[in-house]
Amino acid sequence: MNRGKWNRGRRNKGNQNDPSKLPENFLSILSYRGMAGLKSVFQTCSLEATLSYGQTAVFYAHRMSERMMRWLVEQGANINAVDQWGRTSLHNIISHLAFEDQLETVDLLIRLGADIHAVTPDGDTPLHYAAQWGHLSIVEKLVENNGDIYAPNKRGQIPMEYMMARANNSNICQILPVAEYFLALGVPITDTMRQSVRQLAKFFAFYRSDFNKARLAETEEALQCLLEIFGVPAPPPKRFYDGKAKIIAAPGSWQEQFEELYLWILTPPLTEKAGTVQGELLRVSGSVCSLVLDGFVTDWAEFPTRVKLYYIPHFLRKGNPLLREEIREAKRVIRELIREEKILRPEKLCELTVSWIRKNPDPIPLGRTFYD
Question: Which pLDDT band, with edges at 50, 70 and 90, does 97 fall under?
Answer without folding.
Answer: low
